[in-house]
Amino acid sequence: VVVPYLLSHRTRLLSQLEDAAAAGSSSNSMQNGPSSVRPTANGTYSSSSSKAKTPEGLRLIATVIDTAILRAMLLQPDSGALLRLLQQTNFVDLEDGESVLTSAGRYAELAALYQYNRRHTEGLRLLQQLSQHPGSLEVPADGAAVDLKGLPGVWAAVRYLTAMQPQEVDLIQEHAGWILEADPEAGLEALLAMNPPLDIDIVKPLLEAHAPDFTAVYLESALDLGLATPREVHSELLLIYLHMALEEEREGVKSSVAHARQLSLTDLLVSRPHQPLKLFPDDLTQWGPTPRTSQTGGTSSDTRPGTSGGTSGDTQAPQDGTSGDTQDGTSSDTGAAGAAAASRKPAAVQLPSRPASPLLTPTLLQTPSRRDAYQRLRELVYSSDYIDPEYVLSKLGQGQLLEIRALMLERLGRHREALSVYIHDLNRTDLAEQYCDRFYEAGLAAAVGVGPVVTIGDQDGTSGDTASDAAGDSAAAAAPSQGSASAASGDRQQQNNAVAAAAG
Fold first, then answer.
1. Residue 1: helix, strand or coil by DSSP?
2. SS3 of 89, please?
3. pLDDT tens digits along 91-134
4. Contact 477, 427 (CB under 8 A)
5. Within 46-135, where are the H helices?
6. DSSP 426
7. What is the pTM for the complete model shown?
């Protein structure tokens, strides 16, 4: 009986507060002294002092009523009503509320009270304790707080962090660390969903300290979401991909599959809609990772990388490797995110197929988008304007990542050496023929004026030896002359001659 009675008066009081604020009643608050406040028959309030009619006086009454409601609800079985109350506009006295909620073990409600009153240090520390060290609480958790042990508490902290402002960066950095260590996916979600976004120079040290294996996932996601530019991230991605690809070459399929699962988190993060949620949503399914929207309009639960279920879910990444929905609900293949994603792909050139390798399992081969670290490295070094081929070659030891070496030689215009790698080191004449095809088709397109010439040579604009030079002076050019369309459409037997000469 008490709670409905108080709630009815609360509703009318809130309406009065809104009216008083709109009328600018605060300018009439000139009297001092205590006021005697009592409800009238119609539920409004009268007072011996005009102070009760001002916004300040009404807020004082609201504090008394809301704090009384809190105490009354604590005496009833938990229905979730108190948690909902504390996540909306309320006037609960912080000190009194903190005391009674702690005594009752109602820590979820206490975290909501802290957040509403901008006591973020206490709120985040409480969520950390509930998630990571619930046994250290003096009073055992009760109500919704019981469910915050482990990952639910981590994701509650994510929702708390993403509602904070960039000026509170010190507190964000302090708590992003333990979130990343507890669940890298949750930590990355928090770092990517901040609005406005955190500077990349703030995020990278956090990842290096607490989740170094997921730095590439963050950089890829930031690029796809338009939070970073290729110039900012390509060099660092190169080093990470190189390290992982060399590990895959040494250790085989196990390493390749592990990297593919880990890196697939990028597509998961960018495809998930980033919606601002309450600290404790009414829908309990939203207490963990935000469900992704499926292609049919439904939702599917997320399976973490490394679990038996994989990471595919219901939503498949677009085949061009770009992401799905961004934080503002628009497609990431438009605007800054689309430009960033497009800059990683070669223009008018089809990437050569990777040599057959036991590293590629049937599952990976069926995935049309980005796969393991080797595939990502291969795409990056072939297409990025911010990668120095000479630097890549300097990082490769003798006999390591031979196809990557050939691609870098191709970009440098050192065609003779590139063909030699394909034919002698990889023993793949088919790749050598594809190499010649790329130049033939690029030259043909330029000759008939249907597209730009794709020059793969020195970055300063000078070219190295041509494919025909690589085949020897006596062999016909692998790429056609750009002088005319008819010359460009000559017999492709020239290419086979070129390959044969290089093999010789």
1. coil
2. coil
3. 999 999 999 999 999 999 999 999 999 999 999 999 999 999 99
4. no
5. 55-74, 81-86, 94-104, 107-116, 120-132
6. S
7. 0.68
